[in-house]
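dude i think i finally got it to work??
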Amino acid sequence: MNPAKHHIIVPTDFSEQSKIALTQSYNLARFTGSIITLVHVIDEDLFTSMTHLFTDKEKQEELLRVGIQTNLDELAKEATINSGLIINTRIEKGKIYEQIVAVAEEFNATFIVMSTSGPTTLRKKFIGSNAERVIKDAHCPVISIKGKDHRAGCNTIVFPLDLSKETKEKVNKCIEIAQFFKSTVKVMTVTDTTDEFLINKLERQMEQVIDFISSHEINCTGEFVDSKDISEGVLKYAEKVKADLIIIMTQQELDWTLHFIGNESQQIINNSNIPVCSIRPIHRKDTLEFVI
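look at this
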């Protein structure tokens, strides 16, 4: 692949968690032949509140940008030494999530890789909120990194299955990532129903998906998991199989009545110490069945 045509956007606030996200982007960049662009966004509201007493706000912003650029250059230099990759930098000003999405669209990014935290403190709520908005609005897949300890590669991918018409879109991205990393894919679905019709439909869906993934020379298995809480069932299963990545869809534009409503995806993203790849669905009006 031509690296000039592939980009991974990594937002940074210079925190340890954002540095972990940067480290996690290295192998993905190698396999996809991507340039990494480090992006720091000056929060416009925060900047205004900090500088309201100064008469020369332009000078204050210039000084702030110089300091940020110095830190970005140091981080990029260290990352280049450690990874051998091309690392670019970018400073934007505005709403954090809007600017991250805008930069990703400008570069037609392949992925956004960013840190996130569960909303348990004010700072974590702030970080989590921006990550959630990026995941909701970005047109490319977003890999959110919450946990501290991650393996360098991606040996095992967990693929939660639902009855949505968007499943093929998620399958194709799963195949792409699995081929990059030579991963094993574990298709799973959470059930808390005894409805024979729905169970049979899910069984047919799972069989189709496993056959399709396996046809791309990827080791793929399937399993049903009993749980009354979908997100909890997914996370416990992912931990049990020592997954390196969970692939889910976001659902902000869809009207689903079964599995993975918006709240479930949010809970998975907020609570998973395993990286989560969120894919925004393209709205379609076709059948709910997965069609190869």
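Confidence is low (pLDDT under 50) at residues 120-127, 252-261, 284-292.
im so relieved honestly
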